[in-house]
Amino acid sequence: WSDTLAFVQMLERSHAQATFFTIGEQVTSAYRTTMLRELKDGDSIGNHSFTHPFLTRSGDTYSQLQRTNQAIHSQTGYTPCVFRPPYGDYNQSVIQTAHSLGLATVYWSVDPSDYLQPGAGAIAQRVLSQVRPGAIIISHDGGGPRGQTLAAYPTIIAALHSRGYKVVTIPELL
Fold this sequence. Notes:
This protein is mainly alpha-helical and 174 residues long. Helices cover 49% and strands 7% of the residues. The strands form 2 sheets. It has a two-stranded parallel ribbon. Helix 1 packs parallel to helix 7.
């Protein structure tokens, strides 16, 4: 969670907000303070399933999403309204199940492939070359070393601000 806290602090310094899609099994009391800080800052918390499975193959979508909502709510009092399917793996059944839990299923339009660790410069270049009004940028604050992503974002946010963009949460965008 130290990477997530570093992302929250960077967003504060950059005057930007984000949506943090959270994996339910990782939501523990140790992460509570960071999650509450995200919410206090105006960031949003989204549902990213409980164990990060391929939901079209798991047959367990309802439990995956419901347990994650419960975990987030139990730590923060906040209930997510957006869901990002792990691996971008979804079908109509996944969307309908999410909807039954009050979750809008969201995808992304800009993918800098930051999880491959191509370097901060490459991440920034990829985002800035693809972004358009209304874009949703996928990036990762967990699941491995994320220093390159963290290093890229002050440059990305400053460039977006200079282009007249406002960096907002997905619920605000919707």
